[in-house]
Amino acid sequence: MDDYHEKLYGQIRESYGKVVYTYMTHIEMANLLMKKNRCLKTIQIILSSISTVGFLADVITNQVLLTWLAGISAALSLALNLYSKERNLTDEIRSNTETSNKLWIIREDYLSLLTDFPILTDEDIRRKRDLLETSVSEIYNNAPMTNGKAYALAQSDLKSKEYQFFSPDEIDNMLPERLRISK
After folding, report:
1. Angle, CA of 4, 116 and 160, to the nearest 5°
2. How many Å separate Cα 109 from the centre of its chain?
3. Spatial CB neighbours of 65, under 8 Å, sequence gap ≥ 6
4. Once rounded to an integer, what is the mean pLDDT over residues 105-123?
């Protein structure tokens, strides 16, 4: 490979890596938001239950403590509902999932380009690279924000757990016997 061809290959490999990281970060962000949403919904149900039971128990027993418990629970429930109203976690989850789905095909296109690299001309490679860069840019422009925690989880998935990669034996185990490399 000549020097320019090597640099072009390096640039495409780096772009592939960036897309994979962003793809995984959006998956992790959606997972974090789902956990947060489940937790908020559970707390809302608990607070609502305490408020209702506390109110009913107060009516029946006329206990001041139950009135306070019901009132505090109702106030906390109201605060949580106001927070939830301002921040629609379901929409954020959907947006991160849609972004990761769009990046998945870009990731696959980069893999195809890297696979086809030896048989393509530099002009073909540059054209495909430019199209991919434009597609990635459009996705990033419409992508929701992520955070450091999602990035750290993505980094762990990719580096430590090799989340996106399979050993030859793992791939063989997924394929029918006739398509396996190590028979």
Report:
1. 90
2. 20
3. none
4. 94
pTM (whole model) above 0.85:
no
**Per-residue pLDDT tens for 131-146?**
999 999 999 999 999 9
Whose structure tokens read 């793992």?
170
**The tokens of 136 are what?**
């990635």
Q: How far apart are CA 130 and CA 96, in angstroms?
A: 24
pLDDT at residue 63, rounded to an integer: 76
Residue 58 pLDDT grade (very low, low, confident, very high; cuts 50, 70, 90): low
The C-alpha atoms of residue 10 and residue 48 are separated, in whole angstroms, by 57
Helix H, strand E, coil C: the string for the chain is: CCHHHHHHHHHHHHHHHHHHHHHHHHHHHHHHHHHHHHHHHHHHHHHHHHHHHHHHHHHHHCCHHHHHHHHHHHHHHHHHHHHHHHCCHHHHHHHHHHHHHHHHHHHHHHHHHHHHHHHCCHHHHHHHHHHHHHHHHHHHHHCCCCCHHHHHHHHHHHHCCCCCCCCHHHHHHHCCHHHCCCC
What are the tokens at 144?
Answer: 């929701």
Distance separating alpha carbons of residues 5 and 44, to the nearest angstrom: 58
Tokens 């063989």 belong to which residue? 172
Average pLDDT value for residue range 76-100: 88
